[in-house]
Design a protein that fits this description.
The protein has 455 residues and is of the alpha/beta class. It has three domains: 20-232, Rossmann fold; 243-344, Ubiquitin-like (UB roll) (Roll), CATH 3.10.20.600; 349-438, NADH-ubiquinone oxidoreductase 51kDa subunit, iron-sulphur binding domain (de novo design (two linked rop proteins)), CATH 1.20.1440.230. It is 40% helix and 12% strand. It contains 17 helices and nine strands. It has helices at residues 20-25, 30-35, 40-50, 62-67, 94-101, 103-117, 131-146, 177-184, 213-225, 227-232, 266-273, 325-330, 349-363, 369-386, 392-405, 413-427, 429-438, and strands spanning 79-85, 119-127, 162-168, 208-212, 243-250, 256-261, 282-286, 295-296, 339-344. 53% of the residues are buried. Residues 54-58, 60, 65, 84, 86-89, 172-173, 175-177, 210-212, 215, 411-413, 416 line the site of flavin mononucleotide.
């Protein structure tokens, strides 16, 4: 259901929207001050009541994640809060909009988050090329510190909080939380084996919570409204609460970031907010960043069984299913970052998959053999097909290689490569076969994506 909200984006686009003056005029930092007089348990319960699912991709309940941190801080084992603003997922640009548009929401969220998990230090990990985002965050931290909202006694309360911005070098794998922690420590950005989980041994070997930037920037709003009220904004309450940032890009007329109540549909995102498909008809959507399997526009929901979570949508278009962590899992894909990439019927799915697989081969950190070698195999097989030299056997080989990456790597990068590959092959089998038969000289021809859609 399309319900625009402005709990997170009220100050977006306002000339001084990123300044402390404007943030305070809108009631900023009242919740941080309040949080410092609350117990950790009260804060965690508020977050649990909000039913906020992490906005970084996996959709894990944020309050539950906070509750994994040890209830008391052991001597010599400080707790850390780490904010993930690496945002390397193709098609995803929501955290950047937040850092640039309203950096104080993140700083205030960090104060509340630190209190909730027993930490005194928060690191915001931002990829290096986001210069404006980093500048705005640092400026916000300086302003908050000068006002006495950060430091040894924020708001005069004896609970020190410091927030730092840390630049990442710009590697997709460093968005994976344990690679991020390695990178933060100055090590190679390679994933760690879990367990131990970050809540047991994270940054510098200490108990750590890693939250996505949008997740933490939402905390002041959920505190202001109260967890329960915040949850009820969503049409998927109580499974998933609140409002969130939706992104849409690719072949749409008005790409951008829009804040809406949780439960928006892809049709609303593409046509009402994205201004409709640019230069053609809708072919398919990658729903939440390139790691999430593609949905065809002509797909219908198959949930004939009453116990199926999507039974209410049985026979309807996948475009009309509310976008939720669980609903999209039921569709055989993932909600991911909630930033959709739209493909018009002028796009060639073979070339789109080739483009994605080149990205994954380039970004594989190389630590796990199935991912390092498999992503290269996928790219080379697609090189052959795209060059017009592919065979039907190559399609089977693509399947085999993707399946041998799945489940055989330390981190989810492997699945993030294999799942979209398998999704393209399943949903566009006929187009792949046609491409191979005609050497790419078919209707969805090899030039289709190479040429940007007409302006
Ligand atoms: C390859 C890979 C890249 C990821 N990139 C990001 C990212 O850029 N930002 C992010 O918040 N989470 C990313 N994640 C998910 C994080 O590992 C982690 O789940 C998330 O930061 C937790 O925050 P949340 O619970 O608030 O969603 C990535 C995961 C993988 C496997």
């Amino acid at each position: 259901m399309l319900q625009r909200t402005d709990h997170l984006t009220k100050r977006y686009g306002i000339p001084d929207g990123f300044t402390l003056t404007r943030y305070l005029a809108d009631g900023g930092y009242v919740q941080a001050r309040r949080a410092l007089s609350m117990t950790r348990e009260e804060l965690v319960n508020e977050c649990k009541a909000a039913n906020l699912r992490g906005r970084g991709g996996a959709g894990f309940p944020m309050g539950v994640k906070w509750s994994f941190m040890a209830p008391t801080v052991a001597p010599g084992r400080p707790h850390y809060l780490v904010i993930n603003a690496d945002e390397g997922e193709p098609g995803t640009f929501k955290d950047r909009s937040m850092m640039e548009g309203d950096p104080h929401a993140t700083v205030e969220g960090c104060i509340i988050g630190c209190r909730a998990i027993g930490a005194h230090v928060a690191y915001i990990y931002v990829r290096d090329e986001l210069h404006l985002a980093k500048d705005r965050l640092w400026a916000a931290i300086r302003e908050a510190k000068a006002k006495g909202f950060l430091g040894a006694k924020p708001f005069g309360v004896d609970y020190a909080v410091e927030v730092y911005v840390h630049s990442g070098a710009g590697a997709y794998i460093c968005g994976e939380e344990t690679s991020l922690l390695n990178s933060l420590e100055g090590r190679r950005g390679e994933p760690r084996l879990k367990p131990p989980f970050p809540a047991q041994a994270g940054a510098f070997g200490m108990p750590t919570t890693v939250n996505n930037l949008e997740s933490i920037a939402t905390v002041p709003a959920l505190m202001r409204l109260g967890g329960d009220n915040f949850s009820k904004i969503s049409s998927l309450h109580p499974k998933e609460g609140g409002s969130r940032l939706y992104g849409v890009s690719g072949h749409v007329n008005t790409p951008g970031i829009f804040e809406c109540a949780v439960g928006l549909t892809l049709r609303e995102l593409i046509y009402d907010l994205g201004g409709g498909v640019k230069g053609g008809e809708l072919l398919a959507v990658i729903p939440g960043g390139s790691s999430t399997p593609i949905l065809r526009a002509d797909e219908l929901v198959e949930a004939p069984n009453e116990s199926h979570p999507l039974h209410a949508w049985h026979g309807m278009s996948v475009l009309d299913v509310p976008m939720g962590v669980e609903t999209f899992r039921g569709l055989g894909t993932m909600l991911g970052t909630c930033c959709a990439t739209v493909l018009s019927d002028k796009a060639c799915p073979v070339l789109a998959m080739h483009n994605l697989m080149r990205f994954y081969r380039h970004e594989s950190c190389g630590q796990c053999t199935p991912c390092r070698e498999g992503s290269g195999w996928l790219e080379r097989l697609l090189d052959t097909i795209v060059a017009g030299n592919g065979t039907m056997d190559d399609l089977n080989r693509l399947h085999e290689v993707a399946n041998s990456i799945m489940g055989n790597t330390i981190c989810a990068f492997g699945e993030g490569t294999a799942m979209p590959a398998l999704g393209f092959l399943k949903k566009f089998r006929r187009e792949f076969e046609e491409y191979i038969r005609t050497g790419g000289r078919s209707s969805t021809n090899r030039l289709a994506l190479a040429q940007p859609a007409a302006e």
